[in-house]
Specification:
With about 150 residues, the protein is of the alpha+beta class. The protein folds into two domains: about 1-75, Ubiquitin-like (UB roll) (Roll); about 75-150, [2Fe-2S]-binding domain (DNA polymerase, domain 1), CATH 1.10.150. It has six helices and five strands. The protein has helices at about 20-30, 70-75, 85-90, 100-115, 120-125, 135-150, and strands at about 1-5, 10, 45-50, 55, 70. Helix 3 packs across helix 6 and helix 4 (about 100-115) crosses helix 6 (about 135-150). The protein is globular, with a radius of gyration of 15 Å. The termini are far apart.
């Protein structure tokens, strides 16, 4: 079995195809940006992209992966960061930070599909990503700032 993760090809010969993608990423490949939160696709901490679509890695079996996987580690580089990452920093979204990789991946997917989302569209798209610290107003502000930055790019 092979996976393309963050642009690199990986042979995963010693794992079962039923293994959740989250565990293959974290335990086999050492990619720890996607976090384990709930294990039932309700919190969004494990959000990654498969061919640009935001998915919950805890619920996708490795054998069912249909395309290239991008994690927070592959979304942007330190210089320059992805516009969503830059907006997260500028808006000081993170408090504990545990959910932030999933939040950022969800926001980046939203903006790739809806370049200028309304507040209602942001709230709807982000509603499946939980933040125990309650930084939802900052999250919305960061998504709006990223959308504006992407329009100007």
């Amino acid at each position: 079995m092979h996976l393309t993760v963050n642009g690199a090809d990986h042979a995963l010969d010693d794992i079962e195809p039923e293994m959740p993608l989250l565990w293959a990423l974290r335990d086999v490949l050492g990619i720890t940006g996607p976090k384990y939160g709930c294990g039932i696709a309700q919190c969004g901490a494990c959000t990654v992209h498969i061919d640009g679509e935001a998915v919950r890695a805890c619920q996708v079996a490795v054998g069912d992966v249909w395309g290239a996987v991008t994690t927070i580690e592959g979304l942007g580089t330190p210089e320059p960061p992805h516009p969503v990452q830059a907006a997260w920093i500028a808006e000081q979204v993170a408090q504990c930070g545990y959910c932030q990789s999933g939040q950022i991946m969800q926001a980046a997917s939203l903006l790739s599909q809806v370049p200028d989302p309304s507040d209602a569209e942001i709230d709807d798209a982000m509603s499946g990503n939980l933040c125990r610290c309650g930084t939802y107003p900052r999250i919305r502000a960061a998504v709006r700032a990223a959308a504006n930055a992407m329009k100007g790019a």
